[in-house]
Design brief:
Blueprint (H helix, E strand, L loop, with lengths): L6 H15 L30 H15 L3 H5 L5 E6 L7 H15 L4 E6 L7 E2 L3 E2 L3 H12 L5
Parallel strand pairs: 1-2
Antiparallel strand pairs: 3-4
Length: 151
């Protein structure tokens, strides 16, 4: 919602959300989230980042925030490999996997392969800059199994 709103309303909406969140029992568990580092009693002003590049970024984020993936997922009729990192703080794995399974059930596509690498981040990396163990093997095996002429 923060990125979907026009800039003038983003800070107000984010501030109200922050105030609400601070009243919730779970808020204290979020202190390690990098998105909350430096956030004290108020949301930082966005005025310092106003630039043409920022406007382009915000337009992209607004578009992405409003995107509804279900219709597109329901039109996928080819094999799909969906890989997730268990330590991903960007994408909610459980919700994403459930949405994919729902969309494929609606379309009748039974060719969905889902795997979560428990210690991997959003980029499927562990220990800084190494791919999750088994990632490359899984990718190669899936491609071989799902390529044209595969046995």
């Amino acid at each position: 919602a923060y990125y979907a709103l026009p800039i003038a309303r983003q800070r107000v909406k984010a501030q109200k959300t922050l105030e609400w969140a601070k009243t919730r029992p779970w808020f204290s568990t979020l202190t390690d989230w990098r998105e909350l580092r430096g956030v004290g009693d108020s949301v930082p002003s966005l005025g310092y980042v106003m630039s043409p590049a920022f406007d382009t970024t915000m337009a992209s984020l607004r578009r992405d925030a409003a995107y509804e993936p279900m219709p597109s997922l329901q039109r996928v009729h080819v094999p799909l490999l969906a890989l997730f990192g268990g330590a991903d703080h960007v994408v909610p794995n459980d919700m994403s996997i459930a949405a994919m399974k729902t969309a494929f059930a609606v379309s009748g596509n039974t060719k969905l392969t889902v795997h979560v690498f428990p210690d991997a981040n959003h980029g499927l990396m562990v220990a800084g800059n190494a791919f999750a163990p088994g990632y490359l093997r899984m990718l190669a095996d899936w491609i071989n199994a799902n390529s044209v002429g595969a046995r």
